[in-house]
Amino acid sequence: MARFNYNDKVFVGVENYHDGDMTGETRFHYFQRGDAVWGIFDGGNVAKGTLVARVLEDDRLAMIWQYLNNDGQFFSGSCTSVPELLDDGRYRLHESWQVTGRDGQTSNSVIEEVRG
Predict the structure, then answer these.
(1) What is the pTM of this model?
(2) How many folded domains does the chain comprise?
């Protein structure tokens, strides 16, 4: 049984979210049913985005994502998120992601659950 349940969790970027479309103001709202996780996100320079993921046996998320930025450009890609349970009970996700097409940019980032 998975240790993590992502249903109705809200995350914000805390690392590698200082430039580009995703900023510390981008909010990710996750939902879960069984091993299926999905979400919506916006804020920063993101007009609207969506993601779909599967919880793997080791609690990692295998994910695809897409979004439209405020300049009218579309982006999509894939991501693997490794969850961490913080001392205060919140979740932190360590992300390794890649943009589909274009230049195939890859990077790492971290998002953390927010309360309230």
Answers:
(1) 0.92
(2) 1
